[in-house]
Amino acid sequence: MDRQIGTAAGSTAPAARQPLDDVDRRMVAELVKDGRMAVRTLAERLHISRANAYSRLGRLVRDRVIRGFSVRLDPAQVGLTTAVYVTMQIEQNAWRDVRERLTRLPAIQHFALTGGAFDIIALARVPDQAHLRALILDEIQSIPGVRNTQTQLVFEEVPDEMLLP
């Protein structure tokens, strides 16, 4: 949700966001590679002052260009050795309820409402076939509004760090 700012008439309007410039884009690219990078190091790599780096970083976080900092795990190393994409067809007005239920399933890593042959596509990670069976048959297919599912097993993935800018 956009932040609101007051106007002279007392109404509210969305806060103006500053467009990203080349330095902002380079900053984001550096932080995508290493979100734990010290601001001093970031400033040195971008050839800007630390004050400028702090200011830009604060703005990028405040404007939600950067939505947070996290750890990227190797799923297999933490025991999630089975990955699947689950496509779903849902009842026409069920999106909000289905979305709410999917957000509560820890195995679901990401999902999106899509157009085309399927309404939702979800990436799920589980330890093994037994957990996959339970996820699909007991959890996802029991969600009211889910009409049918198809499951595509992932055989191999390109690590996300290979896809970074």
Summarize the structure.
By secondary structure, the chain is of the alpha+beta class.
Keyword list:
6 strands, 5 helices, Alpha-Beta Plaits, 2 domains, Arc Repressor Mutant, subunit A, disordered N terminus, two-stranded antiparallel sheet, 4-stranded antiparallel sheet, alpha+beta, 165 residues
So how many helices? 5
Indicate the radius of gyration in whole angstroms: 21 Å
Number of strands: 6
The helix/strand class is alpha+beta
Low-confidence stretches: 1-14
State the distance separating the first and last CA atoms: 27 Å
List the helices and strands and how they pair.
Elements: E1 4-6, E2 12-14, H1 22-33, H2 39-46, H3 50-62, E3 82-90, H4 95-103, E4 108-113, E5 120-126, H5 129-139, E6 146-153
Structure description:
This protein has 165 residues and is an alpha+beta fold. It has 2 domains: 18-72, Winged helix-like DNA-binding domain superfamily/Winged helix DNA-binding domain (Arc Repressor Mutant, subunit A, Orthogonal Bundle); 75-155, Alpha-Beta Plaits (2-Layer Sandwich). It has helices at residues 22-33, 39-46, 50-62, 95-103, 129-139; strands spanning 4-6, 12-14, 82-90, 108-113, 120-126, 146-153. A hairpin with a 5-residue loop joins strand 1 (4-6) and strand 2. The longest helix is centred in the middle third of the chain and has 13 residues, at 50-62. It is elongated and about 55 Å long. The protein starts with a strand and ends in a 12-residue tail after the last strand. Residues 20-81 form the HTH asnC-type domain. InterPro entries: AsnC-type_HTH_dom, Dimeric_a/b-barrel, Tscrpt_reg_AsnC-like, Tscrpt_reg_AsnC/Lrp_C, WH-like_DNA-bd_sf, WH_DNA-bd_sf.
